[in-house]
């Protein structure tokens, strides 16, 4: 089997490391030729919960190299999904499936429009990973993988993916309900990511302070209200307990949104808390905590150049 990991960031590198246990062919697709050359020369390193160095990494910026791939693992931020579609759409072969490991709403729809619903899989995961330098990912939180297909079917490909992840020793489940898969993670991200990015706390500390805990719980409770009104059946019963357990399991992780803010990059706020606010508005539900988090993160994103230096 051949897998293309699209995006050599925190999650893409971690998946590369985990997949190495399966002995399948793994190719990394980058968009940046200088970084691809650096990783080809220096290799990839995973630190933290796994300590491993991989030399001889197959890495390219040329998507044609993936034309015979069975799976394309999309590991870029939501704001880069369109750029990935542009880069790979004419190179995904008839046998190729797209697997999005991304957080947030909207990615599955964009990928389904480009590749067809039956060829798109959503893989939500609570794994925690941080890019410490180019080519180095710190595996900072254990997590499972839940797979759902955009067309709701299970299909042979989902079972193949389940076997693949079982070989990596990750707990993996399949679901016929992609909305449940998406919202079960979206609600958790709504509580953790923006709060981490504003407070600059690791996930484990968010629930330790009264103020950040109250904001996280407020955002989660609002998001849950929206999911309930949309009759989404979540994959767990207690949303606050689930968020707490994700924070504990990924205690040392720098959330993916805090990582963006620290690198002065755009964030996934529109796809996470922004999506909650938009859906709530159309249902006449008030989500003041999520709206406040959107305003704060949008301000941070647009004012990196004006930040006060100490
Ligand atoms: N990190 C985590 O703990 C978790 C992350 N996720 C989700 O996984 C997704 C990826 O997150 P994460 O790995 O943290 O993000 P990173 O920003 O660390 O990595 C994304 C990588 O993709 C690269 N990239 C962007 N566009 C393209 C493209 N067109 N082709 C190839 N590479 C591209 C980026 O390059 P450049 O930086 O140069 O733009 C970067 O190297 C997000 O949706 C996130 O929410 C889910 C669970 C946990
Ligand atoms: C699971 C968690 C919260 C890990 O940090 C994540 O999804 C993220 O950082 O985007």
TrEMBL record:
GO molecular function list: 2-dehydropantoate 2-reductase activity; NADP binding
Q: Report the EC code(s) recorded for this entry.
A: 1.1.1.169
Q: What residues does the Ketopantoate reductase C-terminal domain cover? A: 177-301
- Give the reactions, separated by semicolons, that this protein catalyses: (R)-pantoate + NADP(+) = 2-dehydropantoate + NADPH + H(+)
Query: What domain of life is recorded for the organism?
Result: Bacteria
Domain Ketopantoate reductase N-terminal span(s) in chain numbering: 3-151
Query: Would the keyword Oxidoreductase turn up in this protein's UniProt record?
Result: yes
What biological-process terms (Gene Ontology) are attached?
Answer: pantothenate biosynthetic process
**Root EC class:** oxidoreductase
- Keyword terms, alphabetized: NADP, Oxidoreductase, Pantothenate biosynthesis
Q: Output a single Gene Ontology CC term carried by this record.
A: cytoplasm
Pathway(s) it belongs to: Cofactor biosynthesis; (R)-pantothenate biosynthesis; (R)-pantoate from 3-methyl-2-oxobutanoate: step 2/2
Gene3D superfamilies per record: N-(1-d-carboxylethyl)-l-norvaline Dehydrogenase, domain 2, NAD(P)-binding Rossmann-like Domain
Q: Does the keyword NADP apply?
A: yes
Q: Which protein family is named in the record?
A: Belongs to the ketopantoate reductase family.
Q: Which NCBIfam families match?
A: apbA_panE
* Function (record text): Catalyzes the NADPH-dependent reduction of ketopantoate into pantoic acid.
Put simply, this protein is called 2-dehydropantoate 2-reductase
Species this protein is from: Velamenicoccus archaeovorus
Q: What is the lineage of its organism?
A: Bacteria, Pseudomonadati, Candidatus Omnitrophota, Candidatus Velamenicoccus
């Amino acid at each position: 089997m051949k897998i293309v990991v699209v995006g050599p960031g925190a999650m893409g590198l971690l998946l590369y490391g985990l997949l190495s246990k399966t002995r399948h062919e793994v190719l990394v697709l980058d968009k940046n030729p200088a970084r691809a050359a650096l990783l080809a020369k220096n290799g990839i390193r995973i630190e933290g919960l796994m300590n491993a160095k991989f030399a001889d990494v197959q890495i390219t910026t040329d998507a044609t190299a993936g034309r015979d791939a069975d799976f394309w693992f999309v590991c870029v931020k939501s704001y880069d999904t369109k750029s990935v579609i542009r880069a790979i759409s004419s190179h995904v072969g008839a046998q190729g499936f797209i697997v999005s490991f991304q957080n947030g709403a909207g990615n599955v729809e964009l990928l389904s429009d480009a590749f067809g619903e039956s060829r798109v899989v959503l893989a939500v995961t609570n794994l925690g990973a941080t890019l410490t330098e180019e080519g180095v990912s710190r595996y900072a939180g254990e997590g499972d993988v839940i797979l759902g297909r955009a067309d709701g079917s299970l299909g042979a490909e989902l079972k193949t993916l389940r076997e693949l992840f079982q070989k990596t020793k990750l707990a993996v489940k399949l679901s016929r309900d992609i909305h449940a898969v998406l919202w079960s993670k979206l609600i958790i991200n709504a509580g953790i990511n923006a709060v981490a990015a504003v407070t600059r706390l690791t996930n484990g500390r968010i629930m330790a302070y009264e103020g950040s805990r109250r904001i996280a719980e407020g955002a989660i409770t609002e998001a849950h209200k929206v999911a309930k009104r949309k009759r989404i059946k979540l994959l767990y019963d207690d949303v606050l307990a689930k968020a707490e357990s994700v924070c504990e399991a990924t205690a040392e992780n720098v959330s993916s949104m805090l990582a963006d803010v620290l690198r002065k990059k755009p964030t996934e706020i529109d796809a996470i808390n922004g999506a909650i606010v938009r859906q709530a508005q159309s249902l006449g539900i008030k989500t003041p905590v999520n709206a406040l988090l959107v305003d704060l993160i949008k301000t941070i994103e647009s004012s990196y150049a004006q930040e006060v230096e100490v």
